[in-house]
Amino acid sequence: MSDTFVLDGEDVPFVPGQSVLQAALSAGRYIPHLCYHPEFKPHGSCKVCTVKANSGLGSRYASSCTLPAQAGLEVESATEEMNELRRTLVQMLFAEGNHFCPSCEKSGSCALQALGADLGVMTAGFRHFYPDRPLDASHPDFLLDSNRCILCQLCMRASSEVDHKHVFVLSGRGITKHLIVNSASGRLADTDFALTDKAAEVCPVGVILKKRVGFAVPIGQRRFDQRPISAQALDDAPRPSDTSRGTA
Amino acid sequence: MSKKLRVATTSLAGCFGCHMSFLDIDERLFTLLEYIEFDRSPLTDIKQCGPCDIGLVEGGLCNAENVHVLREFRKNCKILVAVGACAVTGGLPAQRNHLTLADCLSEVYLTGPGVEHGLIPNDPELPLPLDKVHPLHEVVKVDYFLPGCPPSADTLWKFLSDLLAGRTPSFTQELIRYD
């Protein structure tokens, strides 16, 4: 017998230790998210999964990926207020990097793009930064295009938690924070990064790109061309009756 | 409808791909022409924009003439629409924004592969390039944004038919694409 909390007026069961986001996804209820990945420790940095939570002591905004599910918690997620905040976060990510979807080989498989389309974002709205960020094509099997990095740290988490390599690191603070490669030269070619690494498959945007397969799947037939990210996320979520996990 | 709505269109720092997508609404153009008439547009070759109901602007801003035309559209159009990735984000031309203009011109006209006896064009009739390429909303107020490279014919049709029917344009997720 599991406890329940309330999500948008409906009871959602949870097992102790689950976050609000994990429990919601397991119960087939989508909360938009970006830096959360079912296979890694929640990170809480992108804030897209922010919900309004009321535990009886007043309501507050919290990242649902790091908010522990508690019995009796009342959570608002699918409201215009929350989705408008999420749109603004997505817009800021688009304005901050160089996200030129028409010329990006990740288009159609990009979580940022899919999330924007799902939330109905039509423009970044803000003044674009057009930052000057480097490309690293030194590695024989990968292109590293940091123009599109959203600092979700999934590659860092995968490289350290799963691959035990620590290939990727963030450097700098605030607006100067950026992704770097953990080698003396700073080049990806001078690390032991390999095609079999978990970190090679988790980038939600078009930063870590495998060479020679960019257009193997044509535009229009890609992951999020088939089904919206909100439906895919539910497919990928671990379910109580089936603990196997879908692909990232 | 008593009076046809006047529509102006232009391509600034664009490739006319959005105009091609607009023509791609095919036979729906006949229906559309029962409700609208064109003012300034590459389709009419009218050179100055008069008072209009809707302005469809393709392309971003890469030179002084683009800014001039955009302001002319904003001044004359009740509803101004940024059509396509370049109008919405700067698009492909904005991929020069991390370089200096001097470096761009120098590479293209002086030092690039195959260039001999190069010269950076400076004819006074040429509009001055802007330091950076900008999306429309950084210069004027934009009422609607249609992303996509180009926005599909179906997206353009949905937008126009909603607007003509007096509805706030809305899109299903399949009609919103950034590529």
Classify the fold: give the CATH topology of chain B. Answer: Rossmann fold
Structural shape of chain A: globular
The tally of helices of chain A reads 6
Q: How many DSSP-defined strands of chain A? A: 10
Strand content of chain A: 15-25%
Could you explain the architecture of this structure?
The complex is a heterodimer of chains A (248) and B (179). Chain A is α+β, with helices and mostly antiparallel strands. Chain A folds into two domains: 3-78, Roll (Ubiquitin-like (UB roll)), CATH 3.10.20; 100-226, Alpha-Beta Plaits. Chain A is built from six helices and ten strands. Chain A has helices at residues 20-26, 80-96, 111-119, 154-162, 223-226, 229-236, and strands at 3-7, 10-14, 50-54, 59-63, 74-76, 135-136, 142-145, 168-171, 178-181, 208-210. In chain A, helix 2 packs across helix 3 (111-119). Chain A is globular. The two termini of chain A are 30 Å apart. Chain B has 179 residues and is α/β, with parallel strands linked by helices. Chain B has a single domain (5-96, 128-170), classed as NADH:ubiquinone oxidoreductase-like, 20kDa subunit (Rossmann fold), CATH 3.40.50. Helices cover 30% and strands 20% of the residues of chain B. Chain B contains six helices and seven strands; from the N terminus they run E-H-H-E-E-E-H-E-H-H-E-E-H. Chain B has helices at 17-23, 28-33, 64-76, 85-89, 101-111, 153-164; strands at 5-11, 36-38, 52-58, 61-63, 77-83, 129-134, 144-146. In chain B, strands 2-1-3-5-7 form a five-stranded parallel sheet, with helices on both faces. The radius of gyration of chain B is 18 Å and the shape is elongated. Classes of the chains: A alpha+beta (248), B alpha/beta (179).
